[in-house]
Target: Glutamate dehydrogenase
Amino acid sequence: VQKNPSEPEFHQAVHEVLDTLRPVIEENEAHYRRDAILERLVEPDRLIQFRVAWVDDAGQVQVNTGYRVQFNNAIGPYKGGLRLRENVYSGIVKFLGFEQIFKNALTGLPIGGAKGGSDFDPKGKSDREIMAFCKAFMSELYKYIGPDIDVPAGDIGVGGREIGYLYGQYKRLTHRHEGVLTGKSLSFGGSLARTEATGYGLLYFADAMLRANGLSFKNQRVVISGSGNVAIYAAEKAGQLGATVVALSDSSGYIYDEAGIDLAAVKEIKEKRYGRIVEYLDIHPQAQYSADDGIWSVPCDVALPCATQNELNLEDAKKLVANGCKAVAEGANMPTSREATEYLQEQKVLFAPGKAANAGGVAVSALEMSQNSERQVWTFDKVDDKLKTIMEDIFAKSDEAAKRFGFAGNYVVGANIAGFERVIAAMQSQGV
Ligand code: NDP
Model:
C-alpha cells in the first residue's frame, strides 16, 4: 500500500488478482521471490503522460492529460484500449492495463497488456471538437506506438468515429498505412465482427458457463447495464440465444421494457444519434424509465454489467440474489466490487469475471492485426467462428485451472491463474 497510494483502482485490481493467485504463488514461492516475479508483474514497463491541447468551437484552447501505460509485452506487442472520460487518470489506466495483461494472455494470441486514454469527456462535444482532440492526442501518442510495438483500440468514449480520426492523424504524421490501431472502419483495414466482438464474446463465454452447469439462455430474463458498444451486442446475442433482455441503462438512468428491449430502437438512439437511453420512451412509450442507478433491482435470471468499473456493489448483489438471479457475467472491466463478487460466489451465483468473459473484443482486435499483416479481409463468419472458439477455450482453461487448484466452479481464480501462468512462463524464458 506504500506504493502508488493515490491509485485505489490499481490497488483493487492488483489485490484481486494476487489474492486469487495464492495457491500458485505458494507452490513456487522460493523462486518467485528470487526472480521478483510479482514485483516485476505489478510495475508497468512504462507510463507515458502527455499534454493534449486543442481548440474548442468557441475558439478557446482546452488542455487535457493523455496517458498510455505499456504494462507488459512478454507475450506480444502491447495491446489495449483508449478511454476518454473525465475521471481518467493514472490509477484507472494502470488498473485497466494490469487486467489487460491477463485477459490478453487468456486469448492464447500473441498480445501483451496496455491501456491509455485521457480525462477528455466526449459527451456534448461537436464532431469537430472530437476530431480536434483526437488529432492532438495522436500527435503525441504516435511516437510510442506501432504495429509491432503497441496497438491501441477503443474503450469507453472511443468508438469507430474516434478510431478513424486517430488513425488519420497517425497516417498523416508517419506516412504509413499499417495496422497500428484496431477497431478501424471496414473501409480502411477494420475487421468484420469487431463491433460485435466483446458483446458476442461475453455471451459465448456465459453460455459455455451456463451449459457446464446444466443451464442455458433459453427463455431467461436478462438485465444489461450500459447501452454502449458492449451492452448493445451482448443484448443482440442474448436475443439470438433465446433470452429476453428487459433492461438497459446509461449513466443517467435505465429503461425497463417487459416485452423485451427493441434493440433496433436502441441502436438508432445510441449509434446514430449519440443520444440518451431515455429517448427510448419516444419510440416505446409503454416502457418505463428511472432516472437512477437502480437497474440491479430489476428481477432477472442473468445479469450482465456492461457499463463501467464498480457499478455493481454489495447492495446490488443482494437484490440480484433475492430476485433469483442465477448468473452474473461481466462485460465491463471490474464492474462488480470485490465484496459483491464474494457475496455472489457464496450464494452460488455463477460468476464470470470480465478478464475472461470480455476478452472477445481484444481477441478480434488481434485477428484484425493478423488480417492487416497479411493484407487480407476475412468473412464475418470466419471471424465470428474463431471468436466463439476462443471464448469457449477461455472458459475451458479457466474451468480447468480452477479445478486443478481445488477451486472448482470459481472462474475468477481459474481465469487469473490461467492468464498468469502463460505470462510468467514467457517472462521467465526471457530473463531479467
Ligand atoms: P461505451 O462508451 O460504448 O459505453 C459505455 C456505456 O456505459 C454507456 O452506455 C455509458 O453511459 C455507460 N456508463 C459509463 N459510465 C457509467 C456509470 N458510471 N454509470 C452508469 N453507466 C455508465 O463503452 P464500451 O461499451 O466500449 O465499454 C463498456 C465497458 O466494457 C468498459 O468497462 C470497457 O472497459 C469494457 N470493455 C470494452 C471493450 C470493447 O471492445 N469496447 C472490450 C472489453 C471491455 P453514458 O453514455 O451515460 O456515458
The domain at 195-357 is CATH 3.40.50.720 (Rossmann fold).
